[in-house]
Specification:
The complex is a heterodimer of chains A (322) and B (284). Chain A is built from 15 helices and 2 strands. With 322 residues, chain A is mainly α. Chain A has one domain. In chain A, strands 1-2 form a two-stranded antiparallel sheet. In chain A, helix 2 runs antiparallel to helix 10. The longest helix of chain A has 27 residues. With 284 residues, chain B is mainly alpha-helical. Chain B has one domain. Chain B has 11 helices and 2 strands; from the N terminus they run H-H-H-H-E-E-H-H-H-H-H-H-H. Chain B is globular and about 60 Å long. Classes of the chains: A mainly alpha (322), B mainly alpha (284).
């Protein structure tokens, strides 16, 4: 797996730093970080399918929505306790992941991206029409049970979620399974030719992605306490998830986290200067320029800088270490 | 009832064919999905709104300005986005998606969030078989038929059109035969932008202007391209009628809220059962 002690040291340092954060920053900043945490979870989930295997999904809210709606309906309309409704929501999302898998067995590339967009749009229209007494129709639902009160608790919950899911996915992606998924994005036929069962690999990848999306979606709705179809199945939401993963660095775990924090804080820090609609214009423009400059994202920029730095250090101290 | 469906369906389908054909063109020649295609429609609609409703110029001038600007937008998009990222279709798709969101926020910046009503390009209503049909939609349908026929002749008969087909079939082969794929791609992006902007004027006068109006037509274009299969103007026309009539029938017979559901179902079904579309070439 190629694990080194410093991997764990970095993860440990990051997690420790984040847990100490509520001591130092304001509640407003904490609330911003909570959104960044959830966005990071969604971006990691997207990245497992799209960053790794190259099956770009434009309809990831489809999965997140299944998780969010399942637990919201179960707790609000049927009085199911949260301890039971969240696992059920995750299971439902994984079933949804298998639905998204069906087209991935036959089509690739742009066609797959389009069919996922269609899935999201279909879901958006269906939740408004079918049983509006359950789903809340166009207006969505409010007054859903919340798990936490106050910014600190919300922060601890969302960050714990992010830490567990990201370390878990990171470990999983360092196994041979993760390597095989990356190979699929390069040349699926060669992977099949090497005697690996790509159907099984893809099924597993979609299930992992759906699991993360389901957990994220369910906890998100229990954090917000409300949900609205227009905000959830929105192409702007897809945009934020994809851009977070990409400008951070696709097919890494750290990348989507960096990207999610960057995007959330960019939007937040633009607020004092640009209170109106200009904010989204600048925000999208920055995202577009960054993506055009380096499609591999911050992760690649940092890594390139790091290796340049090391090369310079090695030159300055000859004989120290090659 | 039947006559009503027939009339409404024909009119709506003509509009849909016009919307979708520019998107199909890029997809079959350039092999990339231009997810910012809906932004041309929005651009066209708002330019028309500015020129003929705010400045009070004649409608023809508004349409012409929309067309020119749409064409320029297409060319710019090719030079600045599609060509630098040329070998990576996924990167083009993602950056056009980002661009669409940027254009949307640009529109919000200028005109605000609320939707605007576009006065009909050609005023007046005619009553046929118990249903009222606006002249506006009739003109839109006639114009879209004229544009589609002109485009078909252009692609089939002219030298540039043949070169476009050659590039769409085999880029390398076309290059060997002395066709510059770069120039052809650029022309295609320009034409696609022009068609999108003109379609946007008619689409906006059919519904209304709003900063999120680009998503609906994009989905319709996607449906038409997928179900029709790439590289077929005739396929586009037929499938636009399938989608248009399906919507009208669903609205009239089942429920207006379900109008999009069947379109989505059609996309998903066709992609899974017959991935190359109903009329597409043998390839994927």
């Amino acid at each position: 797996m190629g694990l080194r002690w410093y991997h764990f040291a970095l993860w440990g340092g990051f997690i420790l730093f984040m847990y100490l954060l509520p001591e130092f920053v304001s509640r407003g900043t904490l609330r911003t970080i909570i959104f960044a945490n959830f966005l990071a979870v969604f971006a990691i989930s997207w990245d497992v399918i799209s960053g790794r295997t190259g099956y770009v999904s434009f309809g990831h809210p489809f999965l997140i929505g299944i998780g969010a709606y399942t637990t919201a309906i179960l707790t609000k309309r049927f009085g199911v306790p949260v301890e039971l409704s969240i696992p059920l929501a995750v299971l439902a999302t994984m079933a949804g992941g298998l639905i998204v898998l069906i087209p991935a067995l036959r089509i690739r590339g742009s066609y797959f991206a389009l069919v996922t967009l269609a899935f999201m749009e279909l879901m958006y229209q269906l939740v408004q029409v079918i049983r509006p007494d359950l789903t809340g129709g166009t207006r969505g639902m409010s007054g859903i049970q919340t798990l936490t009160r106050g910014a600190e608790n919300g922060f601890y919950m969302s960050f714990t979620l992010l830490a567990v899911l990201s370390v878990g996915t990171w470990l999983l992606m360092r196994t041979q399974f993760g390597t095989a998924l990356s190979a699929i994005s390069m040349d699926e036929d060669s992977v099949a030719g090497s005697g690996l069962n790509t159907v099984k690999l893809k099924t597993a990848a979609f299930l992992v992605s759906a699991f993360v999306a389901g957990v994220g979606g369910a906890f998100y709705v229990h954090y917000l306490g409300s949900l609205a179809p227009r905000a959830l199945f929105d192409i702007n939401f897809v945009f934020t998830i994809i851009v977070a993963a990409l400008i951070g660095g696709a097919s890494t775990i750290v990348g989507p986290i960096i990207g999610a924090f960057f995007l959330t804080f960019l939007l937040e820090y633009l607020r004092p200067w640009l209170p109106g609609a200009e904010r989204y214009f600048i925000y999208g423009g920055v995202a577009l320029l960054l993506y055009m400059y380096q499609p591999k994202g911050f992760y690649a920029i940092i890594m390139a800088g790091w290796s340049r730095l090391r090369a310079r250090m090695a030159r300055r101290k000859p004989g120290a270490r090659a | 009832m039947l006559l009503q469906i027939l009339i409404q369906g024909t009119l709506l389908s003509g509009l849909y064919a016009l919307i979708a054909v520019g998107f199909t063109l890029i997809f079959s020649v350039g092999r990339v999905l231009n997810l910012a295609y809906g932004a041309y429609l929005m651009l066209g609609g708002y330019v028309f709104f500015f020129i003929s409703q705010q400045l009070g110029a004649p409608a023809v001038v508004g349409v012409l300005c929309a067309a020119v600007l749409g064409c320029a937008a297409g060319l710019l998009k090719y030079r600045l986005i599609a060509r630098p990222l040329g070998d990576n279709p996924v990167a083009v798709e993602i950056s056009t998606l980002i661009l669409a969101v940027v254009v949307q926020s640009g529109i919000v910046l200028i005109y605000g969030d609320s939707s605007k009503i576009l006065l009909p390009i050609v005023p007046g209503v005619i009553r046929v078989a118990g249903t009222s049909v606006t002249y506006n939609l009739v003109v839109a349908t006639l114009a879209s038929w004229a544009i589609l026929i002109a485009l078909y002749l252009f692609v089939q008969r002219t030298h540039i059109g043949r070169a476009m087909r050659a590039v769409s079939m085999d880029r390398k082969g076309a290059a060997i035969s002395g066709v510059d794929p770069d120039v052809i791609n650029m022309i295609t992006w320009g034409i696609s932008g022009l068609l999108g902007a003109v379609a946007g004027v008619f689409f906006a006068s059919y519904t209304q202007l709003s900063p999120s109006m680009w998503v609906g037509p994009l989905i319709i274009s996607v449906a038409v391209v997928i179900v029709g299969g790439i590289g077929s103007i005739i396929g586009t026309l037929i499938v636009a009628h399938i989608v248009g009539f399906m919507e009208v029938i669903v609205i009239a017979v089942i429920a207006p809220e379900l109008r999009g559901v069947f379109t989505m179902g059609l996309i998903i079904g066709v992609l899974i059962l017959r991935p190359r579309g109903l009329f597409g070439r043998e390839e994927l």
